[in-house]
Amino acid sequence: MPSIYIHPTADVSPTAGISEGTKIWHQAQIREGVKIGKNCVIGKDVYIDKDVVIGDGVKIQNGVSIYKGVTLEDYVFVGPYSSFTNDFRPRAFSDEWEIIPTRLRKGCSVGANATILCGVTLGEYSMIAAGTVLTSDALPYGLYVGSPARLKGFVSRSGYEMDTVQTLKDALEFRCKKTGERLRIRFEASEK
Questions:
Q1: Residues 89 and 172 in one domain
Q2: pTM of the entire predicted model
Q3: In the chain, at which end, N or C, are there fewer CB atoms within 10 A of the end residue's CB?
Q4: Could you tell me if 142 and 166 lie in one domain?
């Protein structure tokens, strides 16, 4: 069974739950009630706020703060110095903080220095490019770039951009040149 590694300079609350195989590096701070899954890597200078839940196989790179209300599912990657918010109207003088939940679904990736505003969901295997400011939900497998973020295309589970190979009546089919993986996105008409 792989053991847990906690660097001597890390500050980990005794009430945090850290699972086997997880590594916590230099000057990280893990607050009360945090739950971290198996085989995670928590980089240097990472701050994880009270009651945050992190799944298995997650990698959080240096200088990231994960605030209360943010949930990371399994195999999420968070690039260095990316930012998360958890309140739409923060004020230093207000006691009326409203925590707005944010969810990062299985396998999604957030690039370096990206900013994720609260209240959004990042779909499974979505990819948020470095420096992007995400203000709304990200589609599963979607590739988002820019500030504010815009959908550029779709990526495979491996993170490679996919090409459209077929346009159907109610769907688009994509194929990854590198891996051959296929993805079908269905569209549903809605009446207003």
A1: no
A2: 0.93
A3: C
A4: no
Q: How many domains does the chain fold into?
A: 2
In order, the DSSP letters of the chain are: -PPPEE-TT-EE-TT-EE-TT-EE-TT-EE-TT-EE-TT-EE-TT-EE-TT-EE-TT-EE-TT-EE-TTEEE-TT-EE-TT-EE---SS--TT-S------EEE-TT-EE-TT-EE-TT-EEPTT-EE-TT-EE-S-B-TTEEEETTTTEEEEEB-TTS-BEEEEEE-SSEEEEEETTT--EEEEE------
- Give pLDDT tens digits for 79-109: 999 999 999 888 889 888 889 999 999 999 9
Q: Is the dihedral of CA 113, 115, 105, 101 positive or negative?
A: positive
- CA count, 13 A, side-chain hemisphere, 43: 15
Q: Tell me the residue type at 12.
A: V
pLDDT in tens, 48-73: 999 999 999 999 999 999 999 999 99
- Residue 81 identity: Y
Same domain? 129 vs 188: no
Report the alpha-carbon angle 35-38-39, nearest 5: 125
For 178, the domain range is 161-192
56, 19 contact by CB (below 8 A): yes
